[in-house]
Write a structure and sequence with these properties.
alpha/beta; single chain; Urease, subunit C, domain 1; 4-stranded mixed beta sheet; 4-stranded antiparallel beta sheet; 199 residues; 7 helices
Amino acid sequence: MLTLHVAEASPETAVLLDGAGIAAVGPFDDLVAVRPEARVRRWPGILTPGLLNPYGPELLEGMYHPDPREAEGFGTEPITGERAQRIFRMDASRRAASARRCVQRLLAHGTVAVAGELRSRAALDAVRRVGLAVGRRPEKLPDRPSFSPVPLVLLPGLAPGGPARFAVFDVPDRAALVRLGPSTCVATVIEGRLVHRAR
């Protein structure tokens, strides 16, 4: 099935998907004229290649991401250091659940790839299940592990024949994305599947 994604502030870079791949990239009016049968998904903001988060191991294996139902005992923010490791040792099943929650937070920040060597089965399974790519770390890393690392690392541009992995951010342009950060993400697509949608 053909799906055409377009964002209001970047109609010149609409993306036509055919399954898990990109069939065409170009102005929305041109693509819809050629393939009028395609289902159209309209988004606010800009459509860009997805983000690479360079801190895969630190976020997925070094932090415990509490379930909202655990807020009374653990709070709502990720737990780091020895306290996180104690939680994992206390109950091994929490490692897999934490990794899955971490992946959901990554997707909600427009992340389509992570970098760094993942060693735990729980992290590897969570990443593979959703289709996150695993890439190389940039030579210079941002200051600290975060879902919104600075600077942002965008993947290479979208091209026909390439994998359908991108994100949509509710901002007027890339400068605003850099300023406001990836928490503005409204949609993340991996292998042609809508894996995160904010609205």
